[in-house]
Amino acid sequence: MKYRKIANTDLSLSEVTFGAWAAGGWMWGGTQGSEAIEAIRASYSLGVTSIDTAPIYGQGTSEEIVGEAIKGIPRDRFQILTKYGMRWDLKKGDFGFSSKNNSGDDIDIYKYAGKESIIKECEDSLKRLGTDYIDLYQIHWPDSTTPIEESMEAVARLIKQGKVRYAGVSNYNAKQLAEAEKYVDVVSNQVPYSMVKRSIEEELIPYCLQNNKSILAYSPLERGLLTGKMKPGYKFSNGDHRSEISFFKDENLKRTNDFLYLIKPIADEKNLTIGQLVLLWTLAQPGITIALVGARNSEQAIVNAKAIESSLSSEEVSLISGHLANLQLVS
User: Fold this and answer.
1) What is the rounded distance in angstroms from the CA atom of residue 263 to the CA atom of residue 277?
2) What SS3 state is found at 106?
3) Which of 55, 246, 301, 306 lies at 20 to 30 Å from 181 by C-alpha?
4) What are the sequence ranges of the domains in the chain?
5) b or e along 304-320 (b: 16 or more beta carbons within 10 Å of the residue's beta carbon)?
6) CA–CA distance, 168 with 177 (Å, rounded to integer)
């Protein structure tokens, strides 16, 4: 495994960081806790020391799974990234959407990052994770009902108390990131980025490069789309949110797989899966610090981690990007 330093800190994260959204089961058709724990431990055995989670993932389930998976490992040998600002148990802030929990009950999700809520969320996360500090604490989504100043000052307070090491944001644009920076040292922004979702290249990446902010790219495999394993006609299980996303329309699956076929020779030459090749391309892009990759079992986790055993030349990156320029998906 290789590691990259986050901004101007002493925090280094594994280039492949374990994304624990799917581990929580919520919006992914349920979870098998034992498999998720094994996946995290398998990743760790290959040097994946960083784990990203959030309270909303399974309404506490993901954090509990992470807490169980890291038991017995010295605390300074791994990094916990979690979030705040999405409440399913408090109707306050920006209404996000309605969903169902893992038990099938209806829940309403709100984006709320008021000071007292953040303090409570942090305490709850620490208990679920079984630790006394969080390495990187990130607002999950912007909350228009709470001043950014209030949210960031709450995190600054947690840093002073030693419960949080560093402050990050998630899903912030450049303007929001600049505002947050006035009140606390924001070291990173976690945002979606993949071969088929590259809008951050226009403004956010240049801002982060200029201001020494790290970018944590989530969904680099676009929730499985870029693995090449999904064919037209693919059926998702009940409760899997991907069934509603346009990327997974039959026509887009066909077009994406046609593109992946063009770059497959590079993967074959290096004895890589398509997904591993996509991860290496992602990590080679300017401004991208680490890639957050989910896994629901140890087999997936091992494949993701082993991608870093290989590398791409600048010529190979350019060749892939050239083919990618011709990929047009339908809405």
Assistant:
1) 9
2) strand
3) 55
4) 3-225+275-311
5) bbbbbeeebeeebbebb
6) 9
d(CA 136, CA 126): 12
- CA pair distance 13, 81, nearest whole angstrom: 10
Task: Compute the distance between CA of residue 209 and CA of residue 220 in angstroms, rounded to an integer.
Answer: 19
Choose, from 3, 44, 57, 193, the residue flagged as catalytic: 57
Answer with the residue of higher pLDDT: 104 or 161: 161
Task: Give pLDDT, residue 95.
Answer: 95
**Structure-block tokens of residue 210:** 């200029």
Class of domain 3-225+275-311: alpha beta
Q: Cα 307–313–319 angle (5° rounding)? A: 100
Q: What is the pLDDT of residues 189-216, one digit of tens each?
A: 999 999 999 999 999 999 999 999 999 9
- As a whole number of angstroms, the distance between CA 16 and CA 133 comes to 22
- The number of residues making up the chain comes to 331
Radius of gyration of the chain (CA): 19
**Spatial contact of 242 and 236, defined as CB atoms under 8 Å apart:** yes
What is the secondary structure of 258-282 as a DSSP string? HHHHHHHHHHHHTT--HHHHHHHHH
Model confidence pTM above 0.85: yes
| Residue 57 is a catalytic residue | yes
Q: Does 245 score more than 60 pLDDT?
A: yes
- CB count in 10 Å sphere of residue 124: 15
The model's pLDDT over 296-325, given as tens digits with 9 standing for 90+, comes to: 899 999 999 999 999 999 999 999 999 999
Q: 284 and 317 in contact (C-beta within 8 Å)? A: yes
Query: What's residue 25's pLDDT?
Result: 62
Question: H-helix or E-strand containing 153?
Answer: helix 148-160
In one letter, which amino acid is 2? K
Tell me how far apart the alpha carbons of residues 122 and 209 are, in angstroms, rounded to a whole number: 29
Please state, in angstroms and as integers, the Cα–Cα distance from residue 161 to each residue in 46, 154, 157, 201, 289, following that order: 33, 11, 6, 36, 28
Pair of tokens at residue 37: 């724990």
